[in-house]
Each structure stands twice: as structure tokens, then as C-alpha cells.
């Protein structure tokens, strides 16, 4: 393919088209990210997990810590494809707000289920943060140009760094980055109260109030990349600049880590740059291989995940909870949830190493969802949220 040629459609790849104005590589990258999210969220045994499939305890990062920012980055890229033609259309803001509210309520429902106790329900969550980032980034995209978006990104990252490292924490007296006494934790404790945050943390939330600000920065990086990909520049220039910018952003995150540590729970500015840079490199590679070089081996399974990403994320969180409500009596008379029973009975026994068994359980869950999503894809069933 000549690198100056326009991007081809999905049908040109021998694959079913999944809609207009879509990059096949973006659907693939989104699907790969969601499949990884399901994998790490559903181990067979939470007590036996390989280290790369766990989050870093506090400062630092693992591959698992990249999954959520990758998805927010993809949200930002997708905004440019979905809204570019709708900037002047009436009602577009209403549709954005409606979708954001829907996403937020779906996340809140997952937190409510199955107890539905409003006094103790966790308010933040993954879908809730996606909703807020989508809303804020979409409105910014409608009202600003790329240069202004870059300025906003710089202000957000530097502003958050100063807030977290300079502003004294009320009740503590000094700025710090410790789990329970940092400024973001104070916001969560004050605004959400301990009753409505992530229960293992007790007084703060990894998807909390203040840390959502730099998460918007992750979406802004995706928007800038999406605008770049939609430009009329030659494909070779797009890919080269994406790789170069991705390397610089990653390096910037590593350097900033020296005085503002990479930390997913705090969503530090260094973490935004690191994850954003690696996401750029990942998408650039997918874009070059799939949309430019027409490489399609192994693409379809993840495209099937990508076109129904929110649906599979929501249901993959809901169904295990429903299964845990269905108890199975064991030979010794004790009762366990049906999900755990299936894991212990059919998946774990062949494995001597419990970590291998746990990984097999997670992979089985992903494969089951692939079967469902493959059927939906073949039937052109795309559930838009």
C-alpha cells in the first residue's frame, strides 16, 4: 500500500464493516484492552495471581495498571471520530450528557448490586470515571481546537502535580502522597465520606473525585491523537510522529516519576504521561499493521470485543455476582457460590500450581465471552450505550 493513500474501510480487509468513520485498528486496540480488563478482573482464585496481573501496591506500576488508562485514551480517540461531524448539529450536547448519565448509572448499579443499600454504596467506579471523562472531554472537543486542548492538558497535569505536592492537606498540615493522608484522599473522605468509597481502602477511592481531573488528561491525550489520525497528512508521517511522540511521553513520565511518582490510585501526572505514551505506541503499531499494511491475522476476535466493549465490561461484572448468589452444596455440607464451584470442580483440578489454575479460570471466562461476542459480531448485534 502506498503510504500516501487514504485509509481503507473494514470491508476492504475482508472483515465485516462495523460502522462508518471507524478505524479497524482502534476497534482492535479497544477489544484487546477490554479483554485484558476482563482477564485481570476475573481470576479463578484471588489468592493466587501472577504479579503482572495485579496492581502495584502503591507507587510504581504493572501491566495491569495500564489497562484502565488505555481505555480512557481510546475514549478520547473515539470522541474525535464520533463528534467531528456533529459539532454544528443541534442536540449533540444533550446526547453526550445522556450517554454520560447512562454510563454513570450502569456503574452505580454494579456497585448497588446485590444489596442495594444506599447508605453504604460506593459512588465512584470504573464506568463512573469513564462517564465523567467522556462528558468533560466531549464538551472540550466541541468548544476548543487542538492547540487549546494541548494547553488544557498541560495546565491539568502541572496543576494536579502542584495540588498534590504543594497544597497542605487539611487536618494533616503538609502535602504528601501517602495512601490515607494525601489531598485526593482528603477530598474523597470529605465529599464522599468513608461510607461511599472503595471498601478495602476505607477512607479514599482509586476512582475518587480529585484524581478524576488527571484522568481527563488521559482522555485529552487520546483526543489529540485522534485528531492527528483524522488529519490529511500522509500515513507515514502519522505513524512516525505517533511513535516519536509516544516515546517522548513515556520518557517524560519516567523522568517525572523521580519527583511525582507513577501511581495509578492517585492517577499522578507522571502516570498520565507514561500510560499515554505507551498507549500511543500501542495504537501506532496496531494502526500501521492493520489499517496500513492490511495485516488481519488474529484481528477479528478482538474486534468482536471492541465493538461491544461497554456491554461486555458491564455484563462480565454483573454475571459473576449473580452466580455467587446461586449456592451449591458441597459433599461436606458447606455451601459455595456457583462460580467458585465450577472453578473448583472443572478448572482447578488438572493444575498442580494454583496460580496456573487461577490464570486458567480467568482465560476460560474470557473465552466464554469471546464465544458470545463472536456470535453477536456475526449477527451484527452492536449494543450502543
From TrEMBL:
Coiled coil: none annotated. The chain crosses the membrane at residues 66-84, 96-114, 126-143, 150-169, 208-229, 241-259, 271-290, 302-323, 359-377. Pfam families: HGSNAT_cat. Keywords: Membrane, Transmembrane, Transmembrane helix. Residues 22-232 form the Heparan-alpha-glucosaminide N-acetyltransferase catalytic domain. InterPro entries: HGSNAT_cat. This is Heparan-alpha-glucosaminide N-acetyltransferase catalytic domain-containing protein. It comes from Spirosoma linguale (strain ATCC 33905 / DSM 74 / LMG 10896 / Claus 1). The lineage of its organism: Bacteria, Pseudomonadati, Bacteroidota, Cytophagia, Cytophagales.
